[in-house]
């Protein structure tokens, strides 16, 4: 399709503008070349684009930039990869083109209309050029806007655009379609291609129209024997897709979420799952979009672009791994079967956890072929035997001996709390960030912080035990009473048995929670 754009210089009077016809599949890098010719700039300076309105919605300046090979740009997207039709979709959508960060020439570009290409026409074309632009590096000084008439200027602009012109007709469209089909065939069998195809089919089926998020079903992967607990989301009309809870940790996080709809602790800290959802183009991250581009896939309309997020306890939500992609592909494949049967009334799913059982699709390998069968699993079988976690003593005995020699008593009550804090840490570029563990000791009466420690994700139990001893040594007094949650007490149990400290197990640590919220605000 051909896009009619009006590009106007801002902050200058009388107005300077160009009305242009350009192919919608043109990249922003190519559009930069057109604008340079149209305004008679010399392309001697840096430039960038900002999307200010897309799909009829105003946006907070999404940058599509170009680092010029210098590697300095931190733009959201790269201009040689982004195409006009992905961002300027509806009439009135617009972007800002900045040229020369010294003179700072701002060009507002508005999509006026989308039209069919003429069979024998060439593009880009300037329909109308009004007034010459100021000269390069002039800051607008000495500008004579009336020197050239509109018709003459329009002809001059088209002469400059001539080297960029290409035919856009039926033959060009056929060629592009064949290239995409060829690319798709080359990627067939690819893990990511298979995942995306299943996700697209799932979005088209739209099972959230007749399924609720508590109609959980189980898929047992035939390759790994991993249990995948599937929950279709979107019945409320907001984010739609599916959450796949993985393994025992995933099942526990699923239980917790449904039992605690308003949890005190953010579930992101402990969740083991993969979220499959469908977003608008401008909501995708760079990696999301690069995955789709690598498979030659593009989409139209709202909430059509698939994206995937991995949740691992202690880690920041991140793009999924290849192993997770394989599991999710299996889950989606079976979800399509289950959802279709529910829609047709052939299958009714138990409500979790009220019905005490779960529908399952079990995959088994037989003579190199996977055979799927239905099953019903009791929740009591899935939960297994509940065991209290046990921890070893992991600190230097010399430290314990030093603490035992503390003679003075601290008569106040101490709250000792351990938990994740929402301040993600990325130690290496490109590496998955983690949530550090915040250790806090607070005087319960005064709210005074006695001790704090921020721990990395490795060897947390050992570090918590050591931090507890450090707190006592710095305090120089032995607390008469320490309050802590059950999980913290379990980590410190082998240490507490050796110390003359009375511990009180509590469900909440109010003073420490207040301090934690303050930490997260800054």
TrEMBL record:
<feature type="domain" description="DUF6930">
    <location>
        <begin position="401"/>
        <end position="520"/>
    </location>
</feature>
<dbReference type="InterPro" id="IPR012912">
    <property type="entry name" value="Plasmid_pRiA4b_Orf3-like"/>
</dbReference>
<dbReference type="Pfam" id="PF07929">
    <property type="entry name" value="PRiA4_ORF3"/>
</dbReference>
<dbReference type="Pfam" id="PF23988">
    <property type="entry name" value="DUF7309"/>
</dbReference>
<protein>
    <submittedName>
        <fullName>PRiA4b ORF-3-like protein</fullName>
    </submittedName>
</protein>
<dbReference type="InterPro" id="IPR024047">
    <property type="entry name" value="MM3350-like_sf"/>
</dbReference>
<feature type="domain" description="DUF7309">
    <location>
        <begin position="192"/>
        <end position="361"/>
    </location>
</feature>
<dbReference type="InterPro" id="IPR055733">
    <property type="entry name" value="DUF7309"/>
</dbReference>
<dbReference type="Pfam" id="PF22007">
    <property type="entry name" value="DUF6930"/>
</dbReference>
<feature type="domain" description="Plasmid pRiA4b Orf3-like">
    <location>
        <begin position="2"/>
        <end position="141"/>
    </location>
</feature>
<dbReference type="InterPro" id="IPR054216">
    <property type="entry name" value="DUF6930"/>
</dbReference>
């Amino acid at each position: 399709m051909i896009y009619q754009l009006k590009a106007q210089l801002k902050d200058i009077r009388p107005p300077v503008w160009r009305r242009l016809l350009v192919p919608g599949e043109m990249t922003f890098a190519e559009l930069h070349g057109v604008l340079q010719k149209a305004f008679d700039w010399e392309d001697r300076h840096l430039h960038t684009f900002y999307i200010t309105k897309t799909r009829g919605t105003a946006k907070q300046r999404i940058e599509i930039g170009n680092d010029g090979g210098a590697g300095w740009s931190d733009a959201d997207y790269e201009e040689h990869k982004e195409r006009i039709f992905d961002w300027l979709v509806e009439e009135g959508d617009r972007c800002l083109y900045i040229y020369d960060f010294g003179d700072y020439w701002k060009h507002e570009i508005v999509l006026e209309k989308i039209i069919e290409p003429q069979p024998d026409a060439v593009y880009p074309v300037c329909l109308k050029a009004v007034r010459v632009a100021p000269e390069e590096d002039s800051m607008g000084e000495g500008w004579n806007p009336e020197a050239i008439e509109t018709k003459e200027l329009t002809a001059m602009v088209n002469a400059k655009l001539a080297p960029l012109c290409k035919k856009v007709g039926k033959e060009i469209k056929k060629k592009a379609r064949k290239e995409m089909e060829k690319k798709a065939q080359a990627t067939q069998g690819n893990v990511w291609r298979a995942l995306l195809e299943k996700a697209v089919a799932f979005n088209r089926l739209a099972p959230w129209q007749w399924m609720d998020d508590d109609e959980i079903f189980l898929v047992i992967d035939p390759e790994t024997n991993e249990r995948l607990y599937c929950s279709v989301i979107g019945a409320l009309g907001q984010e739609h897709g599916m959450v796949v809870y993985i393994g025992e940790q995933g099942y526990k996080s699923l239980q917790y979420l449904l039992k605690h709809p308003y949890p005190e602790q953010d579930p992101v800290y402990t969740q083991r799952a993969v979220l499959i959802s469908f977003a608008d183009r401008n909501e995708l991250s760079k990696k999301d979009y690069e995955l789709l581009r690598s498979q030659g896939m593009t989409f139209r309309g709202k909430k059509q672009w698939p994206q995937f997020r991995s949740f691992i306890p202690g880690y920041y939500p991140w793009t999924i791994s290849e192993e997770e992609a394989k599991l999710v592909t299996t889950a989606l494949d079976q979800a399509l079967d289950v959802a279709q049967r529910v829609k047709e009334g052939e299958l009714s799913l138990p409500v979790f956890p009220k019905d005490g059982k779960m529908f399952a699709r079990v995959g088994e390998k037989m003579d190199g072929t996977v055979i799927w069968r239905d099953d019903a699993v009791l929740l009591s079988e899935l939960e297994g035997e509940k065991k209290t976690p046990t921890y070893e003593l992991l600190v230097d005995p010399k430290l314990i001996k030093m603490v035992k020699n503390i003679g003075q008593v601290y008569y106040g009550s101490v709250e000792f709390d351990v938990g994740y804090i929402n301040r993600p840490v990325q130690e290496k570029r490109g590496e998955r960030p983690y949530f550090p563990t915040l250790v806090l000791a607070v005087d319960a009466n005064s709210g005074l912080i006695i001790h704090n420690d921020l721990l990395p994700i490795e060897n947390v139990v050992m570090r918590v035990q050591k931090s507890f001893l450090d707190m006592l040594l710095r305090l120089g007094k032995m607390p008469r009473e320490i309050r802590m949650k059950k999980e913290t007490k379990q980590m410190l149990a082998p240490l507490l048995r050796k110390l003359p400290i009375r511990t009180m197990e509590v469900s909440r640590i109010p003073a420490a929670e207040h301090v934690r919220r303050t930490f997260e605000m800054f």
